[in-house]
């Protein structure tokens, strides 16, 4: 039986507002020890697809993990490979 309980997290925006988002998946690359989280605000685009966001997780700043965009093209390509593999699972 599959666990259908949704995991959520709170994101504090730069303006101080708080967004509750649903975590799709979190993962780490073993070789780089970098962590990532894929999440959604359950927004839909013009085609009806749910928009997802991907951030790198940095836990070095104390108790509260910080989320950052992925700016390195090689790093982004690795993350996209993970997302492609996940989208092919049934």
SSE order: EEEEEH
Round the mean pLDDT to the nearest integer and report it: 90
Order of strands, widest sheet:
1-2-3-4-5
Strand proportion, as a percent range, falls in over 45%
Gyration radius over CA: 14 Å
Roughly what percent helix? Answer: 10-25%
Beginning-to-end CA distance, first to last residue: 14 Å
Broad shape: globular
Structure annotation, total helices: 1
Low-confidence stretches: none
Secondary structure: number of strands: 5
Q: Specify the structural class.
A: alpha+beta
- Major beta sheet summary: 5 strands, antiparallel
How many domains comprise the coordinates?
A: 1
Give a structural overview.
With 90 residues, the chain is an alpha+beta fold. It has one helix at residues 73-88; strands at residues 7-12, 18-29, 34-44, 50-58, 66-68. The protein has one domain (7-88).
Key terms:
18% helix; five-stranded antiparallel β-sheet; alpha+beta; 90 residues; 1 helix
Secondary-structure blueprint:
Layout lengths: L6 E6 L5 E12 L4 E11 L5 E9 L7 E3 L4 H16 L2
In short:
Helix content is 18%, strand content 46%.
């Amino acid at each position: 039986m599959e666990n259908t309980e949704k995991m959520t997290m709170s994101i504090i925006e730069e303006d101080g507002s708080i967004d509750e988002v649903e975590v799709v998946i979190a993962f780490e690359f073993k070789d780089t020890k970098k962590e990532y989280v894929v999440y959604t605000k359950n927004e839909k685009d013009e085609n009806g697809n749910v928009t997802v966001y991907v951030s790198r997780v940095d836990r070095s700043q104390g108790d509260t993990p910080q989320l950052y965009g992925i700016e390195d093209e090689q790093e982004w390509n690795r993350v996209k490979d993970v997302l492609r593999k996940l989208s092919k699972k049934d």
